[in-house]
Design goal:
By secondary structure, this protein is an alpha/beta fold. The protein contains eight helices and three strands; from the N terminus they run ααααβαβαβαα.
């Protein structure tokens, strides 16, 4: 969040941005944009989502796959909330890729990211100890068997 950049250019006006590393806000934004039924309709009401969306103006969940990249340089301060959100996305066509920049494999941040990677088939993590990596390295890490399998399972 260098000099307030995130608050001015990433989050929409009125968003409560606290300055700590939090994964939940961008995941919530993804849910709001691509899977609004997760927030607006519960239980049996999901059966009527098309009808309800016409009444409420809410759009239906996306059917096309989405890939979300979350770049981070530290430990998340909202682990339980982000875990809950990621868990709720298991049945949705979304793959979340965490790019840990400057995170050492033995750090608390890496421990949590690796837990997400192991727990969920729709999450992957790539750690870069420093920011000096080439785009070819990034692409080859992303296009790995886990991601390819997820694409094939769609």
């Amino acid at each position: 969040n260098h000099a307030g950049y995130v608050g001015r250019h990433i989050y929409p006006p009125g968003t409560n941005f606290t300055g700590g590393t939090m994964y939940a806000p961008p995941i919530e934004m993804l849910i709001d944009e691509y899977f609004p039924a997760m927030n607006s309709l519960q239980g049996a009401k999901k059966l009527f989502s098309g009808f309800a969306s016409r009444l409420t103006g809410k759009k239906a969940d996306a059917e096309l796959p989405a890939v979300m990249f979350i770049c981070t340089d530290g430990k998340s301060f909202d682990e339980s909330k982000s875990f809950e959100l990621i868990n709720g996305l298991q049945s949705k066509p979304v793959f979340i890729i965490f790019l840990g920049i400057g995170i050492h494999e033995s750090s608390d941040g890496a421990t949590y990211l690796n837990l997400l990677k192991k727990k969920f088939d729709h999450v992957d993590t790539h750690l870069f100890l420093n920011g000096n990596f080439k785009s070819d390295d990034l692409y080859s890490r992303i296009a790995n068997p886990k991601f390819i399998k997820w694409l094939g399972d769609l």
